[in-house]
């Protein structure tokens, strides 16, 4: 998927960018920019799909709200909505992503590609979140909470990928 996305982005470049790619100094810049853009696109897609998981939670809240004795379950579901928002914002506005890399640190394309691959692998975790969200109709908010926890934990690992890449790049300079 990562190679496919990068390939599509390269094809979509304008004439000037394709000509600049022939100049050695610009080629690396363009490759990094493409990887950075792909990373951002993947994080935006993850965030968009996480936001969609709120729909079954809202439906469960409406259904649960009809029962006046379901106060604790209602609180649990509302807590899930808040957690989905928090995780979505963490993904969308990651403060340690490519945009936060210091200009003094030269991250190699291979390291950025590892970051992109880490983001791509998160789609498996996202599918578990979506499945658990769909299962809320069966009344199992704990599964969604656990799936969100696993997703959030894996997203935290992308910070480690970037940190190790930055450390390696600093050691080269």
Distance between the termini: 32 Å
| Poorly predicted parts | 97-104
Mean pLDDT: 76
Number of helices in the DSSP assignment: 7
State the shape: elongated
C-alpha Rg, in Å? 20 Å
Could you outline the blueprint of secondary structure elements for this entry?
Elements: H1 2-11, H2 15-20, H3 24-52, H4 54-65, H5 71-92, H6 109-134, H7 141-172
Helix pairs in contact: 3-5, 3-6, 4-5, 5-7, 6-7
Please give a structural write-up.
By secondary structure, this protein is mainly alpha-helical. Helix content is about 80%, strand content about 0%. It has 7 helices and no strands. The chain has helices at about 1-10, 15-20, 25-50, 55-65, 70-90, 110-135, 140-170.
Key terms:
173 residues; mainly alpha; 0% strand
Question: What is this entry, summarized?
Answer:
The protein has 173 residues and is an all-alpha fold.
């Amino acid at each position: 998927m990562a190679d496919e996305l990068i390939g599509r982005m390269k094809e979509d470049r304008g004439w000037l960018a394709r000509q600049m790619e022939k100049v050695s100094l610009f080629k690396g810049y363009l490759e990094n920019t493409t990887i950075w853009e792909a990373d951002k696109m993947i994080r935006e897609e993850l965030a968009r799909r996480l936001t969609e998981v709120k729909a079954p939670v809202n439906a469960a809240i409406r259904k649960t709200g009809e029962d006046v004795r379901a106060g604790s379950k209602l609180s649990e579901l509302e807590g899930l909505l808040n957690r989905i928002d928090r995780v979505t914002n963490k993904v969308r506005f990651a403060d340690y992503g490519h945009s936060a890399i210091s200009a003094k640190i030269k991250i190699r394309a291979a390291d950025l590609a590892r970051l992109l691959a880490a983001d791509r692998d998160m789609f498996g975790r996202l599918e578990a979140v979506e499945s658990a969200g769909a299962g809320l109709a069966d009344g199992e908010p704990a599964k969604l909470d656990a799936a969100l926890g696993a997703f959030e934990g894996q997203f935290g690992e992308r910070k480690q990928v970037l940190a190790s890449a930055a450390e390696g790049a600093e050691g080269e300079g």
